[in-house]
Amino acid sequence: MTVSQRVSSITQRICEQSRPTRDVYLDHLREAASRKPKRSALACANLAHGFAACSPSDKAALAGDVIANLGIITSYNDMLSAHQPFETYPQLIKAAAKEAGGVAQVAGGVPAMCDGVTQGQPGMELSLFSRDVIAMATAIGLSHDMFDAAVYLGVCDKIVPGLVIGALTFGHLPAVFIPAGPMTTGLPNDEKARTRQLYAEGKVGRDELLESESKSYHGPGTCTFYGTANSNQMLMEIMGLHMPGSSFINPGTPLRDALTREAAKRALAITALGNEYTPVGEMIDERSIVNGVVGLHATGGSTNHTMHLVAMAAAAGIKLTWQDISDLSDIVPLLARVYPNGLADVNHFHAAGGMGYIIRELLDGGLLHEDVKTVWGGTEGLRAYTIEPKLGENGTVVREPVAAESADKKVLSTCKQPFQVTGGLKMLKGNLGTAVIKTSAVKADRHIIEAPALVFDSQAQLQDAFKAGKLDRDFVAVVRFQGPRANGMPELHKLTPALGVLQDRGHKVALVTDGRMSGASGKVPAAIHVTPEALDGGIIGKIRDGDMVRLDAETGTLDVLEDPEVLAARPTPDVDISHNSYGMGRELFTAFRNVVGRADHGASVFGL
């Protein structure tokens, strides 16, 4: 099945606007590939340092250029549930590498923080910046130039995008991403959300709330709602960086371990020492990026990826814009209902057909590029991913064609009968600037909100007003000075329960902010990532209480309905944000806040 003309046209536009930077990137990649690791040419002291702790047999293997060395970049820590399973992966990978006639070494570790822990706390202001720290830490791990390929162990919010940016910076090396999988299903996500709202109203106490949260987040693996972490896994598979079918297999299972061993062996098979050399920087091209955006829309994925995909693409010299993302949203239907877009979790999604079903449906609908390179290789391109993985009798992975129909039509639908005809994300434009909204979880009668503004300079101010009973009315909450330059662009999920309560009381409410709400954006219409941000002189910083604001997710507009000359003449208020610059390590990120780019440019500190 060939890709549709509309998808092809957008892809061609991305190719044309990327050509100058992509050409330079590929020139650099090929120069690096021509210098491929030649360990025997290293000075003896250099090489001795590189394998000093290895076994005698591994030392002998690494002394020459014939045996491939696999670098492991890991985000393991045992505080973060999604990454705790990675503790045992290096030994699995090393054993698999040995079986395949290679060597594997842990090249380095990268930090992995949990937004779920830091929500509403000062540490959340380091969250977005951690993506670029992870990319830099990846580069440090690979800078020893000891490796012929690398595997990347990461799952959650900023970790995978950071790892991708780092991997693409070393684009001459093959790269395989290895996930840990989702935790098993716990308390249903809608019950968790209901308890949060009851707590916000003071109808249940902290003990009840903690019990609810602990039943929801209860074991190793990713959170089971379809937020940024699980959107990451979807992206890695649909972009061909995972082994087929590996995204949503639970941790600690024989199939999970078999997929990990298989991934290690495949990484060794695609080095420059063999006949299937697949450098990740050539493998990931404009078509792969478009496939990622299409998958994001079709599944109602995380709004964070409107920034992450832009930054990831830029690391490969590809210029992806919010306009490209928006244009694809107009032609890609929503095929999945996973919380917060529905009641199912990612385990239900996988059981209904999962990634194999989604990829096949989108391929057959002409919405994905089939003729892309993947780590799996072969001539099938992305069609090789239209499968369901199972454990074979000998402990290896076997793959069967995914079922013809969804096993649960309330979770997965078809291109002919989608849950909605356009994607789950939409761009908004107007005199307020440019913003992003996740429409897939918002009921159609709330897609247009016009109401007076109530302006807040922090989410704490809004919460205080709610607790004081001052918000029982129709309004648009404008929460400003939350952009990348102001305070690192934290997620503002502490607002969700309060705004949800007010909406349930029958009020027309919406949120407009230069901050983030991420993949868990829920039922309240939220125009997020507003750019230019308030600190950059954006109009969001000039709105006053009572100004009429109109958010229209149907036409894709976001405006303050005031005289343009009056708005332009207003000064940006002198708000004291000095408290954002110290405490909980924020002092160390002053340089990041000073140089970070706009949200629509990926909110990156690299200037790519």
UniProtKB/TrEMBL annotation:
Tree of life domain: Bacteria
GO biological process, one term: Entner-Doudoroff pathway through 6-phosphogluconate
Claim: RNA-binding is one of the keywords in the record: no
Transmembrane segments: none
Residues annotated as signal peptide: none
Cofactor(s) the record lists: [4Fe-4S] cluster
Chain residues that bind [4Fe-4S] cluster: 156, 223
EC number assigned by the record: 4.2.1.12
Keywords, comma-separated and alphabetical: 4Fe-4S, Carbohydrate metabolism, Gluconate utilization, Iron, Iron-sulfur, Lyase, Metal-binding
EC top class named in words: lyase
Family: Belongs to the IlvD/Edd family.
Function per UniProt: Catalyzes the dehydration of 6-phospho-D-gluconate to 2-dehydro-3-deoxy-6-phospho-D-gluconate.
Name of this protein: Phosphogluconate dehydratase
Organism expressing this protein natively: Phyllobacterium endophyticum
